[in-house]
């Protein structure tokens, strides 16, 4: 519980928080009825393929930023320094790869679920593998969507905020879960995207209020930078090539790029949104605009982290036992410096929960899409569009319930779930390898892809479970010095500076096998890289051995020269792509009576007026 001098939540804070939930719910109701509502499952899951670039870009940014970003990243910088900034380079590379390699192929095929691609390119068994992995999958990052993860995403921030501010724990969990499920079920993808836009605004506002107030308290940004510099927090350039160090320039740029491309390039929750754009130009643009958003958020988080250090450099609340975990530092700071401003701490809490809402809503929508497209449609072909849209809504409701239930599970089995997560986080790498094989290697076949996927998966699991049992030694993570010299508290309740490792299987250091200190200590960012590379290499070798060169692969499933070049000259190639795209959509959508879909595609082509006659 906070000490007497700290502020508490007042009525205004709750009002601000409630307003944020209310606006989100209203957006959902609006899109349930706007423009005739959700007539088809495509309308519900894909926004009728009529979204424009800017809202989609903001939405991608929002779901990328969960409450873990709002609470965790500043604490990470406070503890390990600003080397985290190097992720700015990583994000640039990730967006480039997603927009130029994966997007063109997915967009021209006009698919709803990314795993449909696996069936078109390889076979339906691989599609099933991908789908099932996805539904269980929880990348060790908060951005991937899955039932397990969303439980922690809802629960962890609620717990951190509750312990510092006394903000009601289960009230917040249930309120966010219910509101989220409500607008996802009513409004479909459109509601998810537009609530995300609103929530990004709230998040930036929350961050800004902290940064502005901290600069005022510290009398200028110069002092914050100065303190950080002398505290060793501005450690940008660490070119240590050792893959065992947690964060260095190379682990972040190389490992980070693979890890995040698995999320931006092929993860259903992200792909589903940029494929819902009305033209390929808008889809690519949304990714590039979103990059600016990512940079802005990163800058905010880094500034907050440095401000945290500058304010608490002589008295670290974590070692002084004022907070029990590092992710409680931000709420602690907010109550410390903003308690004289009624409503502002509430704004910060609202911004943390906006992060939760946007992440969970994209999970719910993506899980519904995958279930309907990959598990229901292929086996029940007779369902009408109206029925499918009702089923999609039902699925959203169901997954929303599952997420709230998982939050309850997370409260009981926190540490165990966290361990399971980091192990399942290994799934992203092999899946990225599988898609890369399909898109980049014309000779990869089903057998090669399957063997590659399995071997990548097995090796990732091996390292992952090893790293859980024998956590890497503290010197691998370069934690920086924290001080409690300036605290006016009695010295006996100071604790040692060791990192409290909350692992389930804690083993004494004496019996660490040889593997533990080199193989298992691999930086967590390289897990994905390992999985991807093994999947690709094994897949290529097995494909060549099983006659992969003899097969003919349809060009439209590969990344072709035209796809790559057409992004540079808008006018001419754009129409060409649309015409080609339209044909393949018509083929893909055979047999479903889907007026909304084809009608929008025709619209785009007739706007350009060059291909009218040719087109219809």
Overview of this structure, please?
- The protein is an all-alpha fold.
- It has a domain at 19-416: Sodium/glucose cotransporter, CATH 1.20.1730.
- It has 25 helices and no strands.
- It is globular and about 75 Å long.
Features:
single chain; 616 residues; mainly alpha; Sodium/glucose cotransporter; 0% strand; globular; disordered C terminus; Sodium-coupled monocarboxylate transporter 1
Provide a quick synopsis of the model.
By secondary structure, this protein is mainly alpha-helical.
The CATH homologous superfamily name of the domain at 19-416 equals Sodium/glucose cotransporter
Share of residues in strands: under 5%
Just name the CATH architecture of the domain at 19-416: Up-down Bundle
Helical region count? 25
CATH-assigned fold name of the domain at 19-416? Sodium/glucose cotransporter
Radius of gyration: 24 Å
Number of strands: 0
Model regions low in confidence, pLDDT < 50 over at least 5 residues: 138-145, 490-507, 571-616
Global shape: globular
- The termini sit apart by 69 Å
Overall average residue pLDDT:
81
Helix content: 55-70%
Major sheet description:
none
* Category by helix and strand content: mainly alpha
Series of H and E elements: HHHHHHHHHHHHHHHHHHHHHHHHH
CATH class of the domain at 19-416: Mainly Alpha
